[in-house]
Amino acid sequence: MLDIIVSQGRIGDRTARTIEGAALTAQALERRYGKTAGSVGLVAPPANDDWRDSLLQGRETLVGLGRAIAASIEGGHLPVIVANTCSASLASLPVVARNHPDAVVLWIDAHGDFNTPETTGTGYLGGMVLAAACGFWNSGHGAGLRPEQVILVGARDIDPAEGELLKEAGVQIIPPAEATPDTVVRAINGAQVWIHVDWDALEPGFVPAEYNVPRGMLPSQLREIFEAIPSAQLLGVEVAEFHPPCDDGKNQATLSIILDILAPLLEESPD
Questions:
Q1: Is 92 in contact with 238 (CB distance < 8 Å)?
Q2: How many other β-carbons are positioned within 10 Å of the β-carbon of residue 237?
């Protein structure tokens, strides 16, 4: 059974559009799959603040997300997390690590998200998520993920210090040009898998994101990877960072792309 969980509380958002993007995506999933999404958090204005302030403000939302995800996993369901920012994974990844300690995390993102308080140049909380989940700094929301369990797909904008930390930690990186179904399935190696998608992993022009990076993956490329992952191995899916324009027509076209990409994962799941 699918459990759609949508984050509506600010977790480091630097634009109001990402919260709306999560809401629009959740509504599209509700219509497609006939499910009612559970909403977590209260909408708050964006701010260009430091990660410490973002973390403090987002605490209630993160705690709520963690509880909802744990209930879904422990209930034997398939959680589908629709998040405003990647910071929501501060809640999800420790829950995955606790319940499935040998699972692989397929982190599909243009960025490494492996900065720490010592390496971040922007202070953006979303750029520090994987490092926190792997225990390289304490977010207050848990850790438990081993770096060798992380497969970073589509990354092409990695800070120098972050890159050194990724290398030292042993995180596997598959750049866009090498991200084929065979490559990804071999990297997963039969393990159960939790999938995270930041829409900036795609080539700009398909799904608007706040931090667009050129030379990304194509929607068809990502869908083919998802088609190759056996449904029995899938533990959950989370998507984040859709930055919708103020144009309903364009948003509907974008949502069609999103639903098409995710269909192989969600339509194989039992009701």
A1: yes
A2: 22
